[in-house]
Amino acid sequence: MIKHIFSVYDNKSCAYATPFPSTNKNTALRDFANAVKDPSSQLHLNPSDFSLHQIGTFDDESALLVPTTPPLFMANASQFVEHLPEVIADDELK
């Protein structure tokens, strides 16, 4: 089975995090979005610093590792931040 390999890039340290496998791009994006929404995550605390990239594929039957060169940008963490609605002052409602 082909697994897709992803890594999160930190633009403050100019480095990629330890790669992780995922079934496909959609599951990787879901996992990334969940990490961004986790209040204890660095992705949540500093979303403008991080982005998700596909860096290759891995075939678990043949052990063939194929890099994606250059890494393929998937999403910025800031895309998954849920913004609170703006508070409207009482005098603006009149």
Topology of this structure?
Blueprint: E1 2-10, E2 15-16, E3 20-22, H1 25-37, H2 42-45, E4 50-59, E5 65-76
Q: How would you explain this protein's 3D organization?
A:
By secondary structure, this protein is an alpha+beta fold. Helix content is 18%, strand content 38%. Strands 1, 2, 3, 4 and 5 form a five-stranded antiparallel beta sheet that branches. The termini are far apart.
Concise overview:
The chain has helices at 25-37, 42-45; strands spanning 2-10, 15-16, 20-22, 50-59, 65-76. It has 2 helices and 5 strands, in the order E-E-E-H-H-E-E.
Summary keywords:
alpha+beta, five-stranded antiparallel sheet, 2 helices, single chain, about 90 residues
Whole-number count of domains: 1
Calculate the terminal CA-CA distance, rounded to whole Å.
Answer: 62 Å
Q: What structural category do the secondary elements indicate?
A: alpha+beta
What is the makeup of the main sheet? 5 strands, antiparallel
Strand portion: 35-45%
- The total strand number stands at 5
